Amino acid sequence: MCRGNEMEMDEDIRLLQRLVAIPSVSGAEQAIGDAVEAEFRNMGLEVERYEIGNGRPVVLGILRGGRPGPALLFDGHTDTHPVEDYLGDPFEPRIEDGRLYGRGAVDMKGGLAAMMRAAGRLKSCREKLAGSLIVAAVPDEELLSQGTAFLAELGVKAQAGIVGEPTGLKIGRAMRGVTHIDLTVTGTPKHTSSWSGDENAIVQMGKILAALDRELPERYERRRQELLGTPLFNVGLIRGGGKPNVVARECTATLLRRDLPGEVPEMVFGELLEIAEKAASGACKVSVAESPIQRRPGGGKRLPMEVEPGSRIVEVLKHSARQVTGAEAEDGMVPFWCDASILTNEAGIPTVVFGPGDIACAHSREEWIDLKQYRDCIEIYERAALGFLG
């Protein structure tokens, strides 16, 4: 361990404050990319910088060990959720009762800062490392994940990865996938003086949604998996009709479905269509298709992922967490989808999710991160890198 002194521990907090103070809502990551690059250079890391769009840099800080060996990838996103309804100044970091408040504090500038600080500390003992530590600061995770997708397209090579999303220092080695689905009912427009409910797309959509709510939970329960549980679905958006005096010709419901490993689009869409057609009137046409909402460029999918429980990165993180906190980190699934799926499925890098803070604080009106957990995470990352590359 290249243990930090008291001055370095103060710098741990100052770095997080500097990052939180930089506005970086998705689509405006230029300033924070510049700042991260400067921090990497001040740490003495090799720097590679790429642009995925105007003002949207991908910045890599690379620490090469004294001997050849594997590579470990730390991945953290620089963009944040919007701030329109934030309480107070979202970019004025405030420390109170052991917490640091500000937009992005937990999602995920805390994780990114912890990864950067761990790499900076390891610089002084790089000769102990066999291989390389790569810290990737990427944009666009909150929208289309184009930053990490660029890493996969670039061909970044590593034997394992950690994404620093907030997990409360638990190891997330599995997640459900995400599919956005448009379910559309098409009826017959006519004057309401001579209408039938069988021809009204909105009326028929109501019957379909009731049938989905009734039938899908039982079907999903039969597919339950030990780690990830069942698939999930949510109807989040409905639009249809045109005027009160015209029978609605069309109604579309947009669903978000959380998928299990092994589920394929043909099965998912076919199941929805089967239930919908059975519930709807024969006077209406029903169709199911992938929604364009948040569709990743190039046809990329938000696939489920799972890393084996005995994999080296899981074991190294468990050991490192035990050394720092005195307790072994739990491992399991995370309830959200994130860039770890892209690294695992598209880049071929087995990647887990592990970071400081509570995901429930993400996107909130008063976002915060626990500073003790943040400090512990820096040391865990540092020990994990030493363990994996030692």
Main attributes of the structure:
single chain; 390 residues; alpha/beta; Aminopeptidase; Alpha-Beta Plaits; 2 domains; six-stranded mixed beta sheet; 34% helix; Peptidase, ArgE/DapE family; metal ion binding; zinc; hydrolase; hydrolase activity
SSE string? HHEEEEEHEHEEEHEEHEEHEHEEH
Poorly predicted spans: none
What would CATH call the class of the largest domain? Alpha Beta
Structurally, how many domains make up the residues? 2
Radius of gyration of CA atoms, rounded to a whole number: 24 Å
Can you tell me the CATH superfamily of the largest domain?
Answer: Zn peptidases
Can you give the mean pLDDT?
Answer: 95
What percentage of amino acids are in beta strands?
15-25%
The largest pleated sheet is described as: 6 strands, mixed
- Shape label: elongated
Overall strand count: 16
Helix content: 25-40%
Structural class: alpha/beta
CATH topology (level 3) name of the largest domain = Aminopeptidase
SS summary, helix count: 9
N-to-C span: 11 Å
* Strand numbers in spatial order across the main sheet: 1-2-6-3-7-15
Shape-level CATH architecture of the largest domain? 3-Layer(aba) Sandwich
